[in-house]
Design brief:
22% helix, alpha+beta
């Protein structure tokens, strides 16, 4: 029965390097595999794009989430958020353990910035309760973020039993550091970098992180360690740094 989980969150910038200079989804897959992660929370994942498939010779024949999961993460879920003529993108969760249920909720604050939260229930062998995982990508503006955080809080109160283990991770675009005032104080969640380092991680830009945009919140776990994956080679893969943590089920 596993008690330890290795978790990561990463905004993959639709599989392109900073400033969209080149397609790097193949390198991305290699580096994600090297982290030996159990559950990966991904944002800005392309599910389908007809123009890219025509333009790039090495564009994967599968969706990006299927291509990244491949033979390493046996289960995956995808929440389609932004839809356009050429295709769509959204959030994804990749898991070594069975995803037994999932749903995607539209939390867009306005029609010009499509956002969602992907809620998965994962069955960990030997655990009495399913693990609840929510992958989020919040908007850029303060008012929208507050509405989205309230929607997230309301969803958790309604859909996640308090005794169930819970992980919320993703790109919160939260350089103002307001998310914890809602999630930690109202829902008994702990942000792993705030707990171990005193503040949320600097995760943007990945070449020299200055802004604290990304988060990993947990409930029902002890935090063993945390890590910010930035600099080479990560700065060549996305404009965000990847964050990871090892947690132990209480």
């Amino acid at each position: 029965m596993p008690k330890n989980l290795h978790i990561a969150t990463y905004n993959i910038h639709k599989g392109f390097s900073s400033f969209n200079q080149r397609l790097i989804v193949h390198e991305l897959r290699d580096h994600l595999r090297a982290l030996n992660i159990d559950i990966v929370f991904l944002q800005e994942v392309i599910g389908h794009h007809t123009e890219h498939a025509t333009r790039y010779k090495n564009w994967p024949s599968l969706s990006q989430y299927e291509f990244l999961a491949d033979s390493v993460w046996s289960d995956f879920a995808y929440g389609k958020n932004a839809i356009y003529d050429a295709g769509h993108h959204g959030n994804a969760v990749l898991s070594r353990y069975p995803i037994v249920a999932w749903e995607n909720e539209d939390i867009s604050a306005h029609r010009f910035e499509k956002r969602g939260m992907l809620h998965c229930e994962i069955c960990i062998p030997g655990w009495q309760e399913n693990l609840h995982c929510i992958c989020v990508h919040l908007g850029l503006f303060k008012r929208g973020q507050r509405l989205q955080l309230k929607a997230l809080s309301r969803h958790i109160e309604q859909m996640v039993p308090h005794q169930a283990p819970l992980v919320i991770a993703g790109d919160f675009n939260d350089w103002r550091e307001i998310a914890s005032h809602i999630l930690a104080e109202q829902l008994d969640l702990t942000e792993v970098f705030e707990l171990t380092k005193g503040r949320a991680a600097r995760s943007y830009p990945s070449s020299l992180p200055l802004l604290r945009l990304d988060r990993i919140y947990v409930r029902g776990f002890q935090v063993s360690n945390v890590h910010i994956h930035h600099g080479n080679p990560w700065s060549k893969i996305s404009d965000h740094a990847a964050l990871s943590t090892n947690v132990i089920r209480i």
